[in-house]
Amino acid sequence: MAIFALVDACEGECYKLLDGRYMMVLRGTLKDVEENLSGTRVSQYFLAVERSGVPKVRRAEITCDYCGGEIRGEPVTVRMGRKVYYACCKTVTLLRNY
């Protein structure tokens, strides 16, 4: 859960608003947020229970330049001259030494 509270003084994560007040961001359980707000003078607050509208970035499929298989996870990069090759394992780095 996240709480966005309008406060006069900044404590923790805050964003300064055009009118001089601050938007304080509190995250945690209801009990944690309640404890943090108890000592703060809050004029108004907003509760957020779910984050939405966040774009999900998906990586394009990368294939191994050595075996042609799909690379899952981080690829091994091999630089030869001006070219960069992507591999699924360190075998390619061993083969280029021969």
Helix content: 10-25%
Mean pLDDT: 81
Inertia-based shape = elongated
Total tally of structural domains: 2
Strand order of the largest sheet: 2-3-1-4
Written description of the protein model:
The chain is α+β, with helices and mostly antiparallel strands. 14% of the residues lie in helices and 33% in strands. It is built from 2 helices and 6 strands. The chain has helices at residues 30-38, 91-95, and strands at 2-7, 14-16, 22-27, 42-48, 76-80, 83-87. The strands form 2 sheets. A 4-stranded antiparallel beta sheet has the order 2-3-1-4, with helices on one face. Strands 5-6 form a two-stranded antiparallel sheet.
Keywords:
single chain; 98 residues; alpha+beta; 2 domains; four-stranded antiparallel β-sheet; 2 helices; 6 strands; 14% helix
Draw up the topology in text.
Blueprint: E1 2-7, E2 14-16, E3 22-27, H1 30-38, E4 42-48, E5 76-80, E6 83-87, H2 91-95
What's the gist of this structure?
The chain is an alpha+beta fold and 98 residues long. The protein has helices at 30-38, 91-95, and strands at 2-7, 14-16, 22-27, 42-48, 76-80, 83-87.
